Amino acid sequence: GWLEAVTQQMGYHPQYLDSFLKTQHYLMHMDGPLPFDCRHYIAIMAAARHQCRYLVNLHVLQFLRAGGDPQWLRGLEFIPPKLRNLNEINKILAHRPWLITKEHIEKLLKISEWSWSLAELVHAVVLLAHCHALASFVFGCGCEQDEGLGGRGSLKPLSLGNQCFCEATASNSYSQELLRISRKRSLDSCMELDSLRERMQRIHVEAEGRDEMRLLQQDREEGEGQGAEVGVQGGAEHCSDPSAGLSPLADTDGEITGATNLACYMQDPDFGYQDFARRDEDQTQVFRVQDYSWEDHGFSLVNRLYSDIGHLLDEKFRMVDGLQSSAMAKRQGCEPSVFKRGIWNYIHCMFGIRYDDYDYAEVNQLLERMLKVYIKTVTCYPEKTNSEMFDRFWKQFKHSEKVHVNLLILEARMQAELLYALQAITQYMI
């Protein structure tokens, strides 16, 4: 019940939902290398990178219910150095995963009082990738919105306006009582969670709603078509920014709405996605799946160091690939498998992952520009997504089809982060 807004959207595809929930439950609540409170705190750190209050608030509650120290909720300065040291790869994986190296892995694993074991690090990496990708889905399907919009079925189980739960309680006279109550709650009691929500609603006055985020200015819609193209420069295939110059998130003052509330869980908040095509080519090369793939390399490594998670992740990747999308593909004039592969490869292309057997000219033929703008935004900077992007430019898609595309974004993004992280771990082990 605690992820009800997410599961409501995924419920359009029940088979996938079942696979997702099994993975989510295994990561958070089953035996594994990491303590339960640390798992939820890592999830908080990951969700904060994209300013996803929906996930941060939910994991704050789960952190407390797992016996976590409330002092940790004051920010990174109040957590053990071992957890705080994870901040660097959290930042890199969330925004520019191609920058992760074996040196980052070595730094975390080096022998010291605060060193990580390989198994712990793999668990943490999977959690980070899972929560980054889930943040994309949360924003992409509107679960972050304070109110349901246009029949999208958005819920607000813990909406506190622009406030994070932990911040809203920090100066409240009832905060200690609430934290004490939270820590006593059973992990599997939905009724008690509902009671806790009611207490929160009584204690807090909902802050003023966020300023409506602008989408794409109409006077810039024309003449921008070339910005979404996949091209070749300097011999390296790349995906340029389809939304260049469109500023879908900036408000009237040019500031990102609500960017400061989760700052206590972040370092270097200005670090964000940067087009892979603009990278320093002397330091970063295209990631070729033929050299390191999930099927041939990543699966076996992650499954060996964190038992059974590889099977659950693999099932989830296969499940999203097997979802029916005949109507969606027909609208684009192609076969379902061709359409889905175009979306998947476009997402991986934005992270510098290339398939030698794929003709990237197909992306521009299959995906119309506004769809590419949406995919790029939800994938690379999901916090910039708003309801207009979901509703206005996708009128030809059914709601279930929109959710399907968001599931493709979730899984393709997660696999991309895992490929880079697991390759770095492999290079360290070698």
TrEMBL record:
UniProt record, GO biological process: cellular response to L-leucine; cellular response to leucine starvation; negative regulation of TORC1 signaling; positive regulation of macroautophagy; regulation of response to reactive oxygen species
Pfam families registered for this protein in UniProt: PA26
InterPro entries, A to Z: AhpD-like, Sestrin
GO terms for cellular component: cytoplasm; nucleus
Enzymatic reactions: a hydroperoxide + L-cysteinyl-[protein] = S-hydroxy-L-cysteinyl-[protein] + an alcohol
GO molecular function list: L-leucine binding; oxidoreductase activity, acting on peroxide as acceptor
Coiled coil feature spans: none
Subcellular location: Cytoplasm
Domain of life: Eukaryota
Keywords: Cytoplasm, Oxidoreductase
Family matches, as Gene3D superfamilies: AhpD-like
Family as reported in the entry's similarity comment: Belongs to the sestrin family.
Protein name: SESN3 protein
Encoding gene, per UniProt annotation: Sesn3_1
